Amino acid sequence: MILILLSAVLLLVVGGCVCVVWAARGGPRWARVVARGTLLAGELTRSSGRGGNGRGGDADD
Length: 61
What we know:
Layout: H1 2-24, H2 29-48
């Protein structure tokens, strides 16, 4: 069951990346919408991984 779920997530990620590249080359409107959603999801994922210190989660200093 977990393999099916991970495969579905992988397909969505790959499809989103394909739409980002296609939209950058002037693809159809739906590809630009999917690309915008993919980029937004990436930004949300990146920002959720940051710590509360505002430095991007770096604790090495």
